[in-house]
Specification:
There is one protein chain. By secondary structure, this protein is mainly beta. The chain is 6% helix and 34% strand. The radius of gyration is 20 Å and the shape is globular.
Length: 397
């Protein structure tokens, strides 16, 4: 009965897609699909269902492109770094310990693509963000991508069919991801792997995003990890005033990086953030994720741009671009011109990734009791992720 309801939901979605499809204009000369609404414009590419550009006017009326990406869609497939730029990682986002998991007592081994084969990252060597999605609907303010992930791909059991819809309304970006396991039980966890710099890399004083202020008001805890960022089963407190305290009040991302606690915070020999913060809203009783929040706010005093993130997900990964090293070129819409001290590249700490998701690697931690949010089969309802990014502009300080 649940599966029939899921199919009915999917059929309604497909009907809406079919009705909307004729209104699309197709890709531009760079292979990008544009959608827009009042105060906001975005461009997407089929590779990984990725956001490539997001344009907003700052407090001075200057247009800023606030996400990392490439100028042309063809670059995504040949980029050797493959930083999952603005993509949808799947079918299972983040890391899987030992690249193995159990479902109903059966062990599955999936592609081990990180740390010399010690774990799986973002679904494997040919995960979803390495593949071209199909554009199934495109209107002036919305686009829907689809992917069919075959049984056995990257070692995962069962076929998964997924739809990713991006919609713009006035100063807001809406995301809805739906995935259905059609043949076997399988893990599903998706996310949006967007890299943000709210200054468009055009801040005269800094090439980094360490000046950005972050607030995670519901995140007094985080998932404990080992030195290669694999969850170890512990849930750690983010003590007030500590490096990982973003809940007690807004704090600049770079404020505590000189503290001894920051060294190793993002893995071996790494200073910065690559942490899964839990979103603890249950203590407030029943809530509507659309209004109970935001779960995260990111703001820049330079541009005056702020993004507030609302979501139905219960964890939030923050990555402070510790691994960027100046080898990724900026787009033509970003950066400063003619300044030899500011090469047109993404430098270390030049961006921030904010990933809405559930508790990472929960498929290997049954004691967390997250199975219903991570394992889906033909008799279950669909996996659903919803998020809204509300943008506002304040006078720069």
């Amino acid at each position: 009965m649940v599966f029939l309801k899921a199919l009915a939901t999917l059929a309604l979605a497909l009907g809406s897609i079919a009705r909307a499809q004729s209104h699309g204009t197709g890709p531009d000369g760079d292979g990008k699909y544009k959608i827009e609404a009042e105060g906001i414009r975005a461009l997407f590419v089929p590779y990984g269902a990725s956001i490539a550009n997001l344009f907003l006017n700052d407090s001075n009326g200057i247009e800023r492109d606030v996400v990392v990406g490439f100028d042309n869609a063809s670059y995504y497939g040949v980029d050797e770094q493959h930083g999952h730029w603005g993509a949808v990682p799947g079918r299972y986002a983040n890391r899987i310990k030992n690249s193995t998991f159990l479902i109903d007592g059966a062990e599955y081994k999936v592609d081990a693509n990180e740390n010399g084969g010690r774990n799986t990252l973002h679904g494997g060597s040919d995960g979803w963000d390495w593949r071209n999605f199909t554009v199934v609907a495109h209107t002036t303010d919305s686009i829907t991508f689809s992917i069919v992930d075959p049984d056995g791909k990257e070692g995962f059991p069962g076929e998964v069919v997924s739809y990713v819809t991006y919609t713009l309304t006035t100063m807001a970006w809406h995301i809805k991801m739906v995935a259905i396991a059609t043949t076997k039980k399988t893990p599903i966890m998706l996310s949006s792997h967007t890299y943000w710099n709210l200054d468009g890399f055009q801040n005269d004083d800094t090439a980094t995003a360490l000046n950005h202020t972050l607030h995670l008001p519901y995140s007094g805890q985080r998932v404990g990890v080992d030195n290669i960022l694999i969850p170890d089963g512990t849930i750690l407190p983010n003590a007030e005033g500590s490096v990982n305290d973003f809940w007690s009040g807004p704090k600049q991302i770079g404020a505590d990086l000189q503290q001894p606690e920051a060294e190793g915070n993002c893995g071996f020999n790494c200073t910065g953030y690559d942490n899964c913060y839990l979103v603890n809203r249950a203590q407030e009783g029943p809530y509507d994720w659309r209004s109970a929040g935001p779960v995260a706010s990111l703001a820049s005093n330079f541009s005056g741009i702020q993004v507030d993130v609302f979501t139905d997900q219960e964890a939030f990964q923050i990555y402070s671009c510790n691994g960027q090293n100046g080898t990724l070129a900026l787009k033509a819409t970003q950066g400063l011109e003619g300044d030899p001290e500011r090469p047109r590249v993404v430098e270390q700490y030049g961006c921030v990734v904010m990933e809405v998701e559930d508790w990472i690697d929960a498929i290997n931690h049954p004691e967390w009791q997250r199975e219903s949010r991570h394992i889906f089969g033909p008799g279950d309802g669909p996996y659903v992720l919803q998020a809204r990014y509300d943008f506002s502009v304040h006078t720069s300080r």
